[in-house]
Design a protein that fits this description.
Elements lengths: L10 H18 L6 H35 L7 H8 L1 E5 L12 E8 L2 E8 L5 H6 L7 H17 L3 E7 L6 H5 L2 H14 L4 E9 L1 H5 L6 E5 L9 H8 L6 H7 L4 H6 L5 E3 L10 H19 L4 H13 L8
Parallel strand pairs: 3-4, 4-5, 5-6, 6-7
Antiparallel strand pairs: 1-2, 2-3
Helix pairs in contact: 1-2, 2-10, 3-12, 5-7, 9-10
C-alpha cells in the first residue's frame, strides 16, 4: 500500500486507518500467512480510504450549505414581510403572560387579500439578536402564533409562515413556562385550521422550534436553507461527544433542500441568486413573493375540509418508503 495516501485521509478517520495498518503489519509477521491475504487486505483498506475521502467531500459540501443558511446577511423574516405584504400590522402578546419578540405575527395584504404572516426573526446585529433571542422562540411566542392562526381561521385568512430558527429556546425558564406543550399545541392548531397554510424555510429550520410553525399545505425551502430534527453540533455532541464530527453529522442528517425534496418532506425548492440569498437580498424577496403569490392562488378554490384532510394525509405519509 502507498503510505503517501495517509496524507489525504481526513483527521476524523486517521486513527482508525492507522489501527487497521498496524493490525496488517502484525499479521505479516505471523509465519505461514501467504502474500495473497495481504494483497486482499490492502485492497480492502484502499477502498475504505477512498470511501472515507468521498464521505468527507460530501460532508464539506453540506457544511457549506449550513454556513450559507446561517449567513448574517441573508434576508430575514422582517425583510420578507416588509417586501411581500402591504399594510402589515404587528399583533403582540399571548393574552396569558407576555410577549415574545423572537416570533413576529400579524396581518397584512397581498394583492388586496388579507393574510396572516408569522415567522422567526434572528435580528441583524448583536443588539437586535439579544432582543429577538437569536430567533429562538419561547412559549409566549408559540401561544401568540396560535392566537393569530385561530384568528385567521375564524375570518378565512390564509396563513404564511417564515422559518428561520436554530430551535426553540432550551433554557429551564422556557421549560417551566410550558415550552413543550406550547410547541405541541401550535402543531395541533395548524392541523385543525381550515385555511391554506404556506410554509417557507428561509434560513435554519431547527428541531421543534421550526416544526411548530411548519405544518403547511405546501412547504417550500430556499435552495440554501436547512431543516433538521437537531442541529449538527447537537447531533455530534450526542452521538460522539466530539465537535469534530459536526460536518459528518450535517451530512447524515440529510438537512439540505435537495435531500428533503427527495424524501418528500418538502414540496418545493425555491432557487436563490448565484452564491446565495445574501448576495442579492432584494431579488430574493421578490422571488419569494412570486412563489407565495402563486401558492396562495393554487389553494384559493379548495374547501376548508379538503385543505385540512390533505394536510393530515401529507404528514401521515412521511416516513414510509417503497423500494422498487
Amino acid at each position: 500500500m502507498d503510505l503517501k495516501k495517509l496524507e489525504e485521509i481526513p483527521k476524523n478517520y486517521l486513527k482508525e486507518i492507522l489501527g487497521s495498518l498496524s493490525k496488517l503489519e502484525k499479521l505479516k509477521k505471523i509465519p505461514f500467512f501467504t502474500g495473497i491475504h495481504f494483497k486482499d487486505a490492502e485492497r480492502a483498506l484502499e477502498r475504505k480510504i477512498e470511501t472515507y475521502k468521498s464521505v468527507e467531500r460530501d460532508a464539506r459540501r453540506v457544511w457549506k450549505i449550513v454556513e450559507l443558511s446561517r449567513n448574517d446577511n441573508r434576508p430575514q423574516c422582517r425583510d420578507y414581510i416588509k417586501g411581500i405584504f402591504e399594510d402589515f400590522v404587528d399583533l403582540s402578546g399571548d393574552r396569558l403572560t407576555g410577549e415574545d419578540k423572537s416570533i413576529i405575527a400579524g396581518l397584512g395584504k397581498i394583492n388586496g387579500r388579507t393574510v396572516a404572516a408569522i415567522g422567526h426573526n434572528k435580528g441583524k446585529d448583536i443588539k437586535e439578536r439579544m432582543i429577538y433571542n437569536f430567533g429562538m422562540g419561547i412559549p409566549q411566542g408559540y401561544r401568540k402564533s396560535q392566537r393569530i392562526m385561530e384568528l385567521a381561521d375564524r375570518f378565512g385568512f390564509p396563513i404564511v409562515t417564515f422559518i428561520d430558527t436554530p430551535g426553540a429556546y432550551p433554557a429551564i425558564e422556557a421549560e417551566d413556562d410550558g415550552q413543550a406543550g406550547a410547541i405541541a399545541k401550535s402543531i395541533s392548531v395548524m392541523f385543525k385550521v381550515k385555511v391554506p397554510i404556506i410554509v417557507v424555510l428561509v434560513g435554519e429550520g431547527g428541531s421543534g422550534g421550526a416544526l411548530a410553525l411548519a405544518i403547511g399545505n405546501e412547504v417550500a425551502m430556499l435552495e440554501n436553507s436547512t431543516y433538521s430534527v437537531i442541529s449538527p453540533e447537537g447531533c455530534a455532541a450526542i452521538l460522539w461527544k466530539n465537535p469534530s464530527g459536526t460536518k459528518l453529522a450535517a451530512r447524515e442528517l440529510r438537512l439540505t433542500s435537495g435531500d428533503l425534496l427527495k424524501l418528500k418532506i418538502i414540496d418545493r425548492v425555491i432557487p436563490e441568486p448565484l452564491g446565495g440569498a445574501q448576495n442579492a437580498p432584494e431579488r430574493m424577496v421578490k422571488i419569494v413573493k412570486r412563489y407565495v403569490t402563486g401558492a396562495l392562488e393554487r389553494y384559493v378554490r379548495i374547501s376548508g375540509d379538503e385543505l385540512k384532510s390533505a394536510k393530515a394525509s401529507k404528514f401521515e405519509s412521511m416516513g414510509f418508503f417503497n423500494k422498487e
